[in-house]
């Protein structure tokens, strides 16, 4: 298939990124109709104000709006209509820093990205190129892809691109007029490359070709390695190198160490690694579910610390549930007593019942009953996309994927 010739663009989010970026696209591409939509009526009214009292101050912006608005640039609150009509959709909604839960203080809250993506999937009636434009962590494009693929109607294709924004507030318009570079990333498929080309052609209306870099993603391979090792090797090497007794020689093997402290430290380290492994699993779950589980429903299959026991002491399921609770209950913390955990979770005795209407299944306990579960039936009852996080490498991931599940196995760099 030949690359799409983009003639209608929709931009979801009329903020600091979407507004100036898509206004400049409209100015520079008079043959493309650009509609910027936002749920915030006051913001849209301001963009449409007769005296150009636009909601964002950027030198040069009003000039751009004056030239393009009403010609091929429109501002509207009718998100669905603009999405339906567009060939290419920029998602540039807000991504505030999370205030609580996993990643609080530094992780991005992606629930606006998620709901915009779900909206696209719900209303689209033709193929779309969806461009992630918000300032978001790597992998967001993959989460968007998962949602779009799981919720689209038959015969409709979505190609997802990453097109990170480098503009600085205060110089947005001159940055957009003459960018140092435009970066576009896609999947390494022929459809992905075509979508890349379609967006590159839009920018090529005013940006010199050599400054438009289309990068076919090697991120998947890299993230698989990071996932498999669970570590940022630079950080580890850096931290270890600080210890003057070890220094840069820490990789040298020897006959073994003596003394008591080092041994004790190592034992502590093993315990900490185990704790870390559990919290890393919770983090994987939260990250994959769009960096937030607020308002979501998760089935945890298995509560004991291993199969064939009722013993829940130090059970991995409980640490993970604690992590999940801290995601949406600010008062919960790693020391939440077991009793209050039991109050916050509903305990049922059938896997099918546990999974009904849930977005994700988390497996933290090896459990013989997994063999007898009718996964097709479970899938049918779940919200889509339906995720399975296998913390025990116990399920047949391929079989589940064939049914339609998105499967993530801890310790493996599976694409989600
Ligand atoms: P940024 O600085 O990333 O552009 P802003 O907060 O300035 O972020 O703008 C983001 C805009 O996205 C806001 O005006 C918000 O109302 C809008 N928005 C968020 N979610 C949606 C959605 N699902 N549909 C339409 N607009 C949205």
TrEMBL record:
<feature type="binding site">
    <location>
        <position position="313"/>
    </location>
    <ligand>
        <name>NAD(+)</name>
    </ligand>
</feature>
<dbReference type="GO" id="GO:0003979">
    <property type="term" value="F:UDP-glucose 6-dehydrogenase activity"/>
</dbReference>
<feature type="binding site">
    <location>
        <begin position="250"/>
        <end position="254"/>
    </location>
    <ligand>
        <name>substrate</name>
    </ligand>
</feature>
<feature type="binding site">
    <location>
        <position position="258"/>
    </location>
    <ligand>
        <name>substrate</name>
    </ligand>
</feature>
<dbReference type="InterPro" id="IPR036291">
    <property type="entry name" value="NAD(P)-bd_dom_sf"/>
</dbReference>
<feature type="binding site">
    <location>
        <position position="38"/>
    </location>
    <ligand>
        <name>NAD(+)</name>
    </ligand>
</feature>
<feature type="binding site">
    <location>
        <position position="135"/>
    </location>
    <ligand>
        <name>NAD(+)</name>
    </ligand>
</feature>
<dbReference type="InterPro" id="IPR014026">
    <property type="entry name" value="UDP-Glc/GDP-Man_DH_dimer"/>
</dbReference>
<keyword id="KW-0520">NAD</keyword>
<dbReference type="InterPro" id="IPR001732">
    <property type="entry name" value="UDP-Glc/GDP-Man_DH_N"/>
</dbReference>
<feature type="binding site">
    <location>
        <position position="306"/>
    </location>
    <ligand>
        <name>substrate</name>
    </ligand>
</feature>
<dbReference type="GO" id="GO:0000271">
    <property type="term" value="P:polysaccharide biosynthetic process"/>
</dbReference>
<dbReference type="GO" id="GO:0006024">
    <property type="term" value="P:glycosaminoglycan biosynthetic process"/>
</dbReference>
<dbReference type="Pfam" id="PF03720">
    <property type="entry name" value="UDPG_MGDP_dh_C"/>
</dbReference>
<dbReference type="GO" id="GO:0006065">
    <property type="term" value="P:UDP-glucuronate biosynthetic process"/>
</dbReference>
<feature type="binding site">
    <location>
        <position position="264"/>
    </location>
    <ligand>
        <name>NAD(+)</name>
    </ligand>
</feature>
<dbReference type="GO" id="GO:0005634">
    <property type="term" value="C:nucleus"/>
</dbReference>
<dbReference type="InterPro" id="IPR028357">
    <property type="entry name" value="UDPglc_DH_bac"/>
</dbReference>
<comment type="pathway">
    <text>Nucleotide-sugar biosynthesis; UDP-alpha-D-glucuronate biosynthesis; UDP-alpha-D-glucuronate from UDP-alpha-D-glucose: step 1/1.</text>
</comment>
<dbReference type="Pfam" id="PF03721">
    <property type="entry name" value="UDPG_MGDP_dh_N"/>
</dbReference>
<feature type="binding site">
    <location>
        <begin position="166"/>
        <end position="169"/>
    </location>
    <ligand>
        <name>substrate</name>
    </ligand>
</feature>
<feature type="active site" description="Nucleophile">
    <location>
        <position position="261"/>
    </location>
</feature>
<feature type="binding site">
    <location>
        <position position="95"/>
    </location>
    <ligand>
        <name>NAD(+)</name>
    </ligand>
</feature>
<protein>
    <recommendedName>
        <fullName>UDP-glucose 6-dehydrogenase</fullName>
        <ecNumber>1.1.1.22</ecNumber>
    </recommendedName>
</protein>
<feature type="domain" description="UDP-glucose/GDP-mannose dehydrogenase C-terminal">
    <location>
        <begin position="299"/>
        <end position="397"/>
    </location>
</feature>
<dbReference type="InterPro" id="IPR036220">
    <property type="entry name" value="UDP-Glc/GDP-Man_DH_C_sf"/>
</dbReference>
<dbReference type="InterPro" id="IPR008927">
    <property type="entry name" value="6-PGluconate_DH-like_C_sf"/>
</dbReference>
<dbReference type="Pfam" id="PF00984">
    <property type="entry name" value="UDPG_MGDP_dh"/>
</dbReference>
<dbReference type="GO" id="GO:0051287">
    <property type="term" value="F:NAD binding"/>
</dbReference>
<dbReference type="InterPro" id="IPR028356">
    <property type="entry name" value="UDPglc_DH_euk"/>
</dbReference>
<feature type="binding site">
    <location>
        <position position="43"/>
    </location>
    <ligand>
        <name>NAD(+)</name>
    </ligand>
</feature>
<feature type="binding site">
    <location>
        <position position="169"/>
    </location>
    <ligand>
        <name>NAD(+)</name>
    </ligand>
</feature>
<keyword id="KW-0560">Oxidoreductase</keyword>
<dbReference type="InterPro" id="IPR014027">
    <property type="entry name" value="UDP-Glc/GDP-Man_DH_C"/>
</dbReference>
<dbReference type="InterPro" id="IPR017476">
    <property type="entry name" value="UDP-Glc/GDP-Man"/>
</dbReference>
<comment type="similarity">
    <text>Belongs to the UDP-glucose/GDP-mannose dehydrogenase family.</text>
</comment>
């Amino acid at each position: 298939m030949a690359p799409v010739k983009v003639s209608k663009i929709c931009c979801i989010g009329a903020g600091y990124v979407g507004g100036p970026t898509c206004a400049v696209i409209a100015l520079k591409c008079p043959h493309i109709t650009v509609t910027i939509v936002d749920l915030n009526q006051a913001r849209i009214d301001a963009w449409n104000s007769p005296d150009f009292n636009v909601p964002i101050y950027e030198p040069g912006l009003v000039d751009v709006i004056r030239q393009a608005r009403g010609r091929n640039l429109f501002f509207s609150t009718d998100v669905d209509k603009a999405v339906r009509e567009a060939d290419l959709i920029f998602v540039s909604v807000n991504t505030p820093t999370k205030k609580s839960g996993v990643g609080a203080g530094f992780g991005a809250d992606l629930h606006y990205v998620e709901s915009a993506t779900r909206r696209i999937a719900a209303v689209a009636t033709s193929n779309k190129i969806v461009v992630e434009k918000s300032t978001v962590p790597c992998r967001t494009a993959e989460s968007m892809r998962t949602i779009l693929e799981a919720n689209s109607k038959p015969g409709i294709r979505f190609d997802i691109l990453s097109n990170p924004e480098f503009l600085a507030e205060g110089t947005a318009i001159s940055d957009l007029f003459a960018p140092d570079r435009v970066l576009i990333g896609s999947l390494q498929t022929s459809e992905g490359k075509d979508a890349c080309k379609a967006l590159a052609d839009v920018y090529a209306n005013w940006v010199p070709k050599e400054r438009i870099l289309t990068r076919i993603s090697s991120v998947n391979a890299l993230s698989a390695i990071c996932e498999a090792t669970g570590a940022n090797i630079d950080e580890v090497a850096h931290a270890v190198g600080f210890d003057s007794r070890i220094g840069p020689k820490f990789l040298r093997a020897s006959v073994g160490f003596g003394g008591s402290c080092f041994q004790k430290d190592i034992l502590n380290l093993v315990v900490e690694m185990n704790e870390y492994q559990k919290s890393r699993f919770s983090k994987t779950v939260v990250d994959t579910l769009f960096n937030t589980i607020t308002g979501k429903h998760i089935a945890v299959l298995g509560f004991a610390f291993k199969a064939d026991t009722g013993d829940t002491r130090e059970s991995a399921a409980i640490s993970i549930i604690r992590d999940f609770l801290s995601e949406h209950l600010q008062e919960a913390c790693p020391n939440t007593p077991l009793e209050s955990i039991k109050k916050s979770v509903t305990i049922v005795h059938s896997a099918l019942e546990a999974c009904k209407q849930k977005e994700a299944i988390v497996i933290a306990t090896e459990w013989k009953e997994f063999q007898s579960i009718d996964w097709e039936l479970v899938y049918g009852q779940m919200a889509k996309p339906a995720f399975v996080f296998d913390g025990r490498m116990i399920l047949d991931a391929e079989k589940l994927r064939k049914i339609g599940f998105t499967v993530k196995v801890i310790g493996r760099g599976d694409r989600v």
